[in-house]
Design goal:
It is a single chain. The protein is mainly alpha-helical and 107 residues long. Strands 1-2 form a two-stranded antiparallel ribbon. A hairpin with a 3-residue loop joins strand 1 and strand 2.
Length: 107
């Protein structure tokens, strides 16, 4: 008979610096304890969830945060470009007024 080989799941090992706390012990959203004999729904590689619903809720929340962050960045860039254009418009007006004072002779 073949010798029995003990097998340990990857979540049995304790993370460095966090003794006693396992990464896959509880749902990241609702903190429901995760059983080792039930499905674990993962998101972004290392975030466990107890159900597809919890995972979907987190994904939806992350997407909303990303949209809000992108919107804020867009507004900030628009404000910066408007303030930069304001300086350029003044310089352009000055240059064009100088050009108006210059007479051009044609032959």
């Amino acid at each position: 008979m073949a010798k029995s080989i003990s097998c340990a799941f990857f979540f049995d090992a304790e993370p460095a610096g966090e003794q006693g706390r396992h990464a896959l012990d509880a749902c990241a959203l609702c903190s429901k304890p995760l059983r080792r004999d039930s499905d674990i729904f993962m998101y972004r590689g290392d975030t466990p969830f107890c159900s597809e619903e919890c995972r979907y809720e987190q994904m939806h929340h992350d997407a909303a945060c990303a949209r809000q962050s992108a919107s804020a960045r867009r507004k900030q860039q628009q404000q910066q470009s408007q303030s930069q254009r304001g300086g350029h418009e003044t310089a352009t007006a000055t240059v064009s007024s100088r050009k108006a004072d210059v007479s051009v002779a044609s032959y």
